[in-house]
Amino acid sequence: MLKYIKLFIYSCIFCVLANLIMGVGGAALIYISKGHFYYPFHQVIRAISFGVIAGSAITLGAISFKLIEIFKMKKR
Questions:
Q1: What's the confidence (pLDDT) of residue 48?
Q2: Full 3-state SS string of the chain
Q3: Distance between CA 23 and CA 63 in Å, rounded?
Q4: 4-61 pLDDT, tens per residue?
Q5: Given this model, what pLDDT does residue 52 score?
Q6: pLDDT at residue number 74
Q7: Are 54 and 13 in contact (CB under 8 A)?
Q8: Would 15 disulfide with which of 24, 51, 58, 71, CB 3.0-4.6 Å?
Q9: How far apart are CA 67 and CA 76, in angstroms?
Q10: For residues 73 and 30, is the Cβ–Cβ distance under 8 A?
Q11: Would you list the domain boundaries of the chain?
């Protein structure tokens, strides 16, 4: 159980950071084309919420695949 909690935390942190980095990349493109750095606060909130949703999906997928594997082992 503890390993799935760790997986949930690590995957959420990774997904949030990945979303923030992609947002900074987009802001850098805006900076190059228009000359000002635009990274609004709602983009940070969006990155956090999407990151938590994606991290939850990763953890749910790992748990589902593990349960499928357990049921296949019992079936044999």
A1: 96
A2: CHHHHHHHHHHHHHHHHHHHHHHHHHHHHHHHHHCCCCCCHHHHHHHHHHHHHHHHHHHHHHHHHHHHHHHHHHHC
A3: 30
A4: 999 999 999 999 999 999 999 999 999 999 988 888 999 999 999 999 999 999 999 9
A5: 96
A6: 85
A7: no
A8: 51
A9: 15
A10: no
A11: 2-75
Give residue for tokens 């923030």: 20
pTM above 0.70, yes or no: yes
Question: Residue for token digits 């695949």?
Answer: 65
Amino acid letter, residue 75: K
Residue listed under structure tokens 């750095």: 37
Angle in degrees, 0-180, between the axes of helices 2-34 and 41-75, rounded to the nearest 10: 140
